[in-house]
Amino acid sequence: MSMLEPNHERLQNTLTVLSDADVGGTPGGGVSRPAASDADKSVRDCFVRITQGLGLQVRVDDIGNIYARRAGTDDSAEPVVIGSHLDTVVPGGRFDGILGVAVALETVALLNDSGIETTRPIEVVNWTGEEGARFPPAMLGSGVVTGKWSAEYAQSRVDAEGLRLGDELSRIGYLGEQSNRLTAFHASLEAHIEQGKHLEEAGADIGIVSLIEPVRWCTITVTGRGGHAGGSGPRQRAEAIVAAGRMVATARDLSLDADDFTTTVGTMKVEPGSNNVIPHRVEFNLDIRSSDDDTIARRLTEVTDRFGQIGREEGVEVQVEPYWEMTGPEFAGEIRGLLRRVADERAVKWEELRGVIGHDSLHLSSMGPAAMLFTQTTNGLSHCEEESAPWESVLATAGVYANAVLGLANS
């Protein structure tokens, strides 16, 4: 197998360009780049310039996914899909998603440097709205391509200000045509930081991901009775916020006792939201995760049953609305085997591990053979300005990734 060697300086420059201040880089060293924002437009423009400079043909689909295609000698063959996402949380880090795009661009640059033609075409993709930070739910772009959602549904998602994703993509010039969508692929490979400490603790540079553990999201609406803070005392109240607070703590306590699932509440909306008014309505989102679909279903039932009990005790109404789920199929064994062989040939220490955070590759695995390669993360920090990865691990990832893509594109 040809051993492509990453260009250190070029890869570092690509990472810098994709996280500079003019594309959403923050003074604290991170990146704030919500989907379809002005900063997202700037980085998309940058991505297009880089890919066109590499000789790739660029197209945009009807949910804003950008595809940059390197032709194959058999250009009618199904492509190898590489890349990741460039949107971030606010504030986010300079590696999450960005590293996967940079490593994909470096792979194409290495093939060009060596004058290597591949049998299959290669498509570098920047997926729209992976984070779901501005327009939930997460992984919208890959979800549309794989049939999880319709384009109409995805385009109609709104942000906190009521702006529609479709309108914002149109505003920044990245709402393309349905005919440009990816419809099939031979293999898909995504590189990403681990967002955990497994690799760091194992002293491994890369992780070969076996599967992504399942996640479910629910909206919990608690409706009580409002009133003036100086009115009825606590025994006469039906306080939505007290009930909601008990629910959040109870979900956490149940997860501690069971030790096989986790719950997170990251948003809470209180109405009317005044210091001297008893809230009559509280809405919060529950994220629940476990190692398999059966466990997560069982634990979600236990948690929501307890929510109902708390509602009865507090004299409030409780509504539970599931609205998004992520199942956990295994990634393609043949691609994982190739990654192991390439890593061993390059004397790169690797570990097999399970992913616990959603990525576009999860959706892609329902469409064709897909896999993921994780890079060691420093102190497990992600989704923050302190997010980092050891440079040696980044280079190890880039080397394994490029050579695996070469193998896939000639298979």
UniProtKB/TrEMBL annotation:
Q: Does the keyword Cell membrane apply?
A: no
Q: Name one Pfam family in it.
A: Peptidase_M20
- What superkingdom heads the lineage? Bacteria
Alphabetically sorted, this entry's keywords are: Hydrolase
What terms describe the molecular function in GO for this protein? hydrolase activity
Q: Which InterPro entries match?
A: Amidase_Cbmase, Bact_exopeptidase_dim_dom, Peptidase_M20, Peptidase_M20_dimer
Matching CDD domains, A to Z? M20_bAS
Q: Which PANTHER family match?
A: ALLANTOATE AMIDOHYDROLASE (PTHR32494:SF5), ALLANTOATE DEIMINASE-RELATED (PTHR32494)
Which protein family is named in the record?
Belongs to the peptidase M20 family.
Name of the protein in question? Zn-dependent hydrolase
Question: What organism, scientifically named, is this protein from?
Answer: Brevibacterium daeguense
